[in-house]
Amino acid sequence: MPTRRRFLLRGLAATAALPLWVLAARAGGLAAAAPPATPRGAPPVRPAMGRLHEVEIKGFAFLPAALTIAAGDMVIFTNADLAPHTATSETGLFDSGRLGRGQSVRMSFATPGTYPYLCTLHPKMRGTITVA
């Protein structure tokens, strides 16, 4: 009888914990990280080969607004605003997709050139990445 009681209590405890797990998942506590994005037309670059640079999206601006990097480097865009944002190439070479607060996306840049980008949700937000 004690074994059956223990079995039933464990089942009841697991059932009671299920709504808490669902709430944690919906709140983002169990969210998976976004996969790295690569600009279209550029060959993929292994992260270990280049440096990692950060662009913070905060106050409806890209910080820094202008960034110069070496070919093969990666840029991580992180949204620190309450509002959602994107980092989208003006020429269609890359698009971060919609980033919510606290979300990030990594993009590699292998081809030298200048890449102007903007937030498609707030078009006055603009930045430039120059790959030397």
UniProtKB/TrEMBL annotation:
Coiled-coil residue windows: none
PROSITE patterns registered for this protein in UniProt: TAT
Domain EfeO-type cupredoxin-like intervals: 53-131
Signal sequence bounds: 1-27
Database matches in Pfam families: Cupredoxin_1
Annotated protein name in UniProt: Copper binding protein, plastocyanin/azurin family
Alphabetic keyword roster: Signal
Record-linked InterPro entries: Amicyanin (IPR035668), Cupredoxin (IPR008972), EfeO_Cupredoxin (IPR028096), ET_Amicyanin (IPR052721), TAT_signal (IPR006311)
Source organism superkingdom: Bacteria
